[in-house]
Specification:
Protein name: GyrI-like small molecule binding domain-containing protein
Mean pLDDT: 92
Strand order of the largest sheet: 1-3-4-2
Distance between the termini: 21 Å
Structural class: alpha+beta
Organism: Faecalibacterium gallinarum
Number of strands: 4
Largest sheet: 4 strands, antiparallel
Number of helices: 2
Radius of gyration: 14 Å
Low-confidence stretches: none
Strand content: 25-35%
Shape: globular
Length: 100
């Protein structure tokens, strides 16, 4: 998870938190729940470390439409080193909540 503040400054690689999906909410442990709502989504093909163009695309989309981003951007591996050896085949989903 990358905070919207970092995104606004172009600091794409400054992660605020790491996240995973769970079946049951953990007890006695801090837990963030991704807010329901509308999200702008893009997919990054290739090495997920080269994500700056995808983040810039989303940043431009928000500016063009006068939207505000939610608190965090979520960067999720769809295909990564677990499923293939060549980073050029990786697929990453990047989503940011749209606030109107």
């Amino acid at each position: 998870m990358v905070s919207a503040d970092f995104l606004a400054r172009g600091e794409w690689g400054c992660y605020s938190y790491f996240f995973t999906k769970v079946v049951d909410r953990p007890q006695d442990h801090p837990c963030h729940i991704k807010p329901a709502g509308e999200y702008a989504v893009t997919y990054l093909a290739g090495d997920y470390y080269n994500a700056a163009p995808a983040f810039q695309l989303l940043k431009d989309f928000f500016a063009e439409h006068g939207f505000r981003p939610g608190e965090f951007c979520y960067k999720e591996a769809v295909l990564d080193e677990v499923s293939m050896a060549d980073p050029e085949g990786y697929l990453t989903r990047i989503s940011i909540q749209v606030l109107r």
